TrEMBL record:
Organism: Maribacter polysiphoniae
EC number assigned by the record: 4.2.1.33
A GO molecular function held by the record: metal ion binding
Gene it is expressed from: leuC
Protein name, entry field: 3-isopropylmalate dehydratase large subunit
Oligomeric and partner information: Heterodimer of LeuC and LeuD.
Cofactor binding summary note: Binds 1 [4Fe-4S] cluster per subunit.
Residue ranges of every copy of the Aconitase/3-isopropylmalate dehydratase large subunit alpha/beta/alpha domain listed in the record: 9-457
Enzyme class of the recorded protein, top EC level: lyase
Record keywords, A-Z: 4Fe-4S, Amino-acid biosynthesis, Branched-chain amino acid biosynthesis, Iron, Iron-sulfur, Leucine biosynthesis, Lyase, Metal-binding
Function: Catalyzes the isomerization between 2-isopropylmalate and 3-isopropylmalate, via the formation of 2-isopropylmaleate.
Reaction catalysed by this enzyme: (2R,3S)-3-isopropylmalate = (2S)-2-isopropylmalate
Pathway given in the UniProt record: Amino-acid biosynthesis; L-leucine biosynthesis; L-leucine from 3-methyl-2-oxobutanoate: step 2/4
Lineage, highest ranks first: Bacteria, Pseudomonadati, Bacteroidota, Flavobacteriia, Flavobacteriales
Binding site for [4Fe-4S] cluster: C347, C407, C410
SUPFAM superfamilies the record matches: Aconitase iron-sulfur domain
């Protein structure tokens, strides 16, 4: 057996507590992130069995899915949301867990605040009852979503039983074209592999494009790994990673940092290590992307036409059903399609760089009269940066308002729902039927494409509005 290891192998193998022959591994979990939706039943299980949380200091709770994004100082009106938020607050207090609820300065989307406060670190194992936990893989961590029963298991034991996934490396080489963002890179990869193309794999992203990306861009790419069926995605940590992590509240300091760095600097794939599958893409083939259907794999370059059914994997009947839901036709151009809503935010694109990109397009322009725009920062840190950098003044001048942190219109679990039949250009991660509200129609795109739609009222190539 080769002694050469992939990045994934190094992190996984170092966390195996016990290997069960012909079964799963018992994996130690360094960080457990908790929110209000998947945790109540898990905590109830602990209570019924009289079990405590084994490592409350490794567990962090924040409210995000059910939170309103306006008037957060007022009581939450929706009774289900209010009950789930109250349950998380009470359970966190009962078990000694850090809790960042509404009104707390650290409150925000779980996959935004984790990195912001240094909870996310290279080489760690991180889980959360949320599929987009893969976001944290941008730091060279193994991060993946878990179900409610697994949330209970981690709370009780700080371990989880998992079969080791296969490994895949996706290389994107070259330099990105003008107007192409990390979101476009991810949507392009998913469009090429389909939503099941990485099923059973843990993906490492490699190549010049990812080396050149900022940490926030890497988070966006890893966030979307789950949308092509992968168990998670990760990128080898480098100097950008280390500089991002250093000095944050929960990051190691002093001698502990020196020790951590000794480990972190070993986190790369050895030359000659073998992957179960390897794919390479040319960055020059990627342009601003937009989805036209009802899964993230149904995406095209914004200048292209909607493909014919015979050119798409998955069967003509399913394809036609998707187009019927969207009220689109084979061969349609996406350019010029009218838009009703624009959503900037979510754990995919709710960071400060996303707001900088959006603002760069709308500066000096006005919001289209036919568009309702929801601009939702992923955290209070992002919200503060928007104000301190002068972005809010530019957005307000263009006719936009800033909402308060939360998951917002990514999913229909709070007040920010897109009405039936309406079209939303969304910087979030899923465009399933009803994802943003019953009957809503979602077009996934980057912050640049979202901004172009917001000021023109239709699907527009952002390169037409960018300064040369």
């Amino acid at each position: 057996m080769s002694s050469k290891k992939t990045l994934f192998d190094k992190v996984w193998d170092s966390h195996v507590v016990e290997h069960i022959e012909n079964g799963p591994d018992v994996l130690f979990i360094d960080r457990h992130l908790v929110h209000e939706v998947t945790s109540p039943v898990a905590f109830l299980g602990l209570k019924n069995r009289g079990i405590k949380v084994l490592h409350p200091e490794k567990t962090f709770a924040t409210a995000d899915h059910n939170t309103p994004t306006i008037n957060q100082h007022l009581p939450v009106e929706d009774p289900l949301s209010a009950n789930q938020l109250k349950a998380l607050e009470e359970n966190s207090a009962a078990y000694g867990i850090s809790y960042w609820g509404l009104g707390h300065e650290k409150n925000g989307i779980v996959h935004v605040v984790g990195p912001e406060y240094g909870i996310t670190q290279p080489g760690a194992t991180i889980v959360c009852g949320d599929s987009h936990t893969s976001t944290h893989g941008a730091f060279g961590a193994i991060a993946f979503g878990i179900g409610t029963s697994e949330v209970e298991m981690v709370l009780a034991t700080q371990c989880i039983m998992q079969a080791k996934p296969k490994s895949m490396r996706i290389n994107v080489e070259g330099s990105l074209n003008r107007g192409v963002t990390p979101k476009d890179v991810a949507l392009y990869i998913i469009s090429q592999l389909t939503t099941s193309g990485a099923t059973g794999y843990f993906v490492e992203y490699a190549g010049q494009v990812f080396r050149d990306m900022t940490m926030e861009g890497r988070m966006t790419v890893c966030n979307l790994s789950i949308e092509m069926g992968a168990r998670g995605g990760m990128i080898a940590p480098d100097e950008k990673t280390f500089e991002y992590v250093k000095g944050r509240e929960f990051s190691p300091k002093g001698a502990a940092l020196d020790k951590a760095m000794t480990y972190w600097e070993t986190l790369y794939t050895d030359e000659g290590a073998q992957f179960d599958k390897e794919i390479t893409f040319d960055a020059s083939n990627i342009e601003p992307m937009i989805t036209f259907g009802t899964n993230p794999g149904m995406g095209i370059g914004i200048s292209n036409d909607i493909p014919n059914a015979n050119a798409v994997e998955g069967g003509a009947a399913t394809y036609q059903k998707s187009l019927q839901y969207m009220n689109f036709n084979e061969g349609d151009s996406m350019m010029g399609k009218p838009i009703d809503f624009v959503f900037l935010g979510s754990c995919t694109n709710g960071r400060i760089e996303d707001f900088r990109a959006f603002t760069s397009i709308v500066k000096g322009r006005k919001k289209a009269a036919n568009v309702t725009a929801w601009l939702v920062p992923g955290s209070h840190q992002v919200e503060a940066a928007i104000k301190n950098e002068g972005l809010l003044a530019i957005l307000n001048e263009a006719g936009f308002e800033l909402r308060e942190p939360g998951c917002s219109a990514c999913l229909a679990m709070n007040d920010d729902k897109v009405p039936a039949g309406k079209y939303a250009v969304s910087t979030s991660n899923r465009n399933f039927e009803g994802r943003q509200g019953p009957g809503s129609r979602t077009l996934l795109a980057s912050p640049l494409v979202a901004a172009a739609a917001a000021v023109t009222g239709k699907v527009t190539d952002p390169r037409e509005l960018m300064e040369v």
